[in-house]
Each structure stands twice: as C-alpha cells, then as structure tokens.
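Why does residue order matter? Because the sequence determines the fold. Keep that principle in mind as you read this record.
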Amino acid sequence: MKLYKKITFDWNIIRNSFINPYPILDETRAVLASYLHNILLKDTIILDIGSSTRYIENIANKHKSHYIGVDYPNWTNNYSNALATIKNQPPDTWSDIRTIGIMDNSVDVITCIDVLEHINAPQDAFQNMARITKKDGTIILLIPFFMEIHGGRNGEDDYFRYTKSSIKHLFNSNGIELEKSEYIGKFGTTLNTLISGFIIREYQFASSSRNKLLWLIVAIIVIPLILMIRLYIDNIDTTVRNPAYIIAIGKKY
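Structure:
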C-alpha cells in the first residue's frame, strides 16, 4: 500500500513536469488567454461556464473584471475525479447551462470551456447563452475535436464534436455573429493527446498496484518519445485537418 501511494504521488509530479503528457492544454489556454486579455476591461462581467479549476479567474482578476464561475450540479456524481478537481476551487454557483437563471442581457463575456460536447441539447444551451449576453457582448467556445470519449463514468455524457461549419450554424441561428474560429493542434499534437490519454487511463484504472507500476513505466518511456515525434509531425503538417481542439469567438449585435 505504501508503494501504491508513492507511485500515485510521483505520477502527479510527472503530469506537471517538462514531460507533460497534454501540451495541448497549455496551448489552448494560451490561445484563450490571448483573446481574453484583448477584451476584458475593468468591471467587465465574465461568466465562466464549466469553471472547473477556475483558471480563467486569474485572467479576470488582472483586468479587475467581475468573475462568475458556473459548473454543472450533477458533474460530481457522474465523473469520479470531479470532487478532487474542484475541492479547493468550487464554482460560485451550480447550474445547468440550458436553464441557468441569469437575467437577460446581463453578461459581457461568456466562456464555455470543454462543455458543449457534453450537452445533449446544444441549441437550448446556445439560446440561453445568447439570451443572457449583453448587446456587443462576446461568447467564447473551446471544444475538443479529436479526443477520447470522456464525461460520465463510461463516457455516457459525451454527445458531440463540432467543426467550424457546425459552430457557425449554432452562432448564426441564435443571433450571434461568428467573428473567428480556429482549429488548435496539428496532427502530431492530436496523436500525442490520444496516445498519452490512453496510457493515463490504463494507469488510472489499473486493477492492481503491480499493473499501475507497469503503466507508469510505460508512461515514463513512451510519453517523452511521443512528445518528440509530435514536434516533427506538427512541423510537416500544413493542413490542420486533424485538430485536437476548436476555439470560436462570437459577438452579439
């Protein structure tokens, strides 16, 4: 049991080290931060849907904006790691994006991060986001594209993936003008995300301490290798037709 605990602790260190298995997360957060820094002002009201660890709050605080974190009330029941994730960063309110009770035209900026793929009625969610957004307000979506099935105990809360075309349709059909959409992560990054995700899941759900140790050894050997391969493939990939994520920014006029 002591060995098991030690392995778990060391794995958490590895996930935050220079061999971070998910560089796509740093990349998407950097892109998102650059957009937010350009639009946030003092007293801007920003609603963070899917607030999780509340990392967007740090950006809002730098601009003296008013931050509101929202997360789904049943998320902790459906996802085994949720309680640990939000233990020290709980949302300001628990609510469903489709029915959140905020006044019409009251929010300047909405960020919806890693959420829309888990909504079984995206039109309802979008209508509600458009309703509460002020005129000239901004909605920013960040959604995984090539990503393992996730959400819920066995992926039962994973419903959709979105392209630029489908995002544009959602924006336009709800009175939001799409200003920009961008795919993030070339094929090498996508490949890295899928392989690293597979290894990490096998480690997390290993049935014994011995199996956990074996998967940790695999991670230490394979993840640095796939990170190097990622750099080469991304360098020669000029199409960006196999992205890991999509980000979209729309404005309400």
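Residues 2 and 8 are 10 Å apart (CA to CA).
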